[in-house]
Amino acid sequence: MKKRKIKDENIIREKILQAIEKSNNGINQKYLWKVLKIDSKIGTRVLVKLINEGKVSKSVSYVNGKKVYIISQPKHKLVILPIEQLEGLVCFPCSDIYKCSDEGELTPVNCPMLNSWLEQN
Description:
alpha+beta; three-stranded antiparallel sheet; 4 helices
């Protein structure tokens, strides 16, 4: 008996994001389709949308001379600011600064106040 493949793009989207989140260093694209039982044509279409939205990134690696596509969470680019621009930085007076860390519920990457401030500067 053949296992039924998933066709709903919203379900595929969530399954792809969950699988990538669980993987530390990314996941092989072919392996992703196999594990999630997703048709590669549909999966690739959803994956392209996720890449365009900045939700995932795709890189090329070579294993035993074969090209392999690795899907992972995007790396956030660091912005280096001159010290003069840090004068009005919203982090210092923030009441949640003690909760902010590299990992957890509140991070510099997902902080709305910091992101708004960076957009203005």
